[in-house]
Specification:
There is one protein chain. By secondary structure, the protein is of the alpha+beta class. A three-stranded antiparallel beta sheet has the order 1-2-3, covered by helices on one side. It has a two-stranded parallel ribbon with strand order 4-5. The protein is globular, with a radius of gyration of 20 Å.
Length: about 180
């Protein structure tokens, strides 16, 4: 899973989650070294960064004779990155961006990755690139830790009940200390 976000000011962020057999083996939350002028550039930079993790994982599996010669699924939630990874000439802005696009294109051509578009609700790397509502964040964390949906729903219900109880207790404490 690969994602990027434009931060406040001049910094952009890369988020990534690498899974093997359903278990997470690597997560990334990195500050990008160049200021991305727009989200497409940030996604391309993030894609290249997360590609390094995929290449390492592929090499590790190849050394253990596990790799089957199939490209690794590379989940992105950016349509623009999908457009670039399919070889269309969409990045004509600057030399540094074109170089990064070529690296992604080579990975697709050499069957290292197979870019797959996923909706934002299924993008686990979002927890590393932006603020999320609690229930969305919690769902991604449960998926990241490979917790079944039924257990995560029960845990979320418990946390919501605890939050309501805490809110009531805080209101009672605040009203007890009010001075007329």
């Amino acid at each position: 899973f690969s994602d990027a976000g434009l931060g406040s000011g001049t910094q952009s962020y890369t988020g990534g989650v690498a899974k093997l057999a359903g278990g997470t083996w690597n997560t990334n939350c990195l500050r990008q070294h160049l200021a991305a002028p727009e989200s497409t550039a940030a996604e391309i930079v993030g894609g290249g960064t997360n590609l390094n993790t995929v290449i390492f994982g592929n090499m590790f599996l190849q050394e253990h004779r596990i790799r089957q010669g199939k490209p690794t699924p590379f989940y992105v939630d950016s349509q623009s990155l999908m457009f670039v990874a399919k070889g269309e000439k969409s990045a004509k802005r600057s030399v540094w961006l074109i170089r990064r696009v070529k690296v992604l294109l080579e990975a697709v051509e050499h069957n290292e990755i197979r870019p797959i578009h996923v909706s934002e609700k299924d993008m686990m790397a979002d927890i590393f690139t932006k603020y999320l509502k609690h229930n969305v964040w919690f769902r991604h964390v449960m998926n990241l830790h490979n917790v079944p949906e039924s257990r995560s729903a029960a845990a979320l219900a418990f946390l919501e009940k605890e939050q309501k109880t805490l809110t009531v207790m805080l209101k009672q404490a605040a009203s007890a200390h009010d001075v007329p």
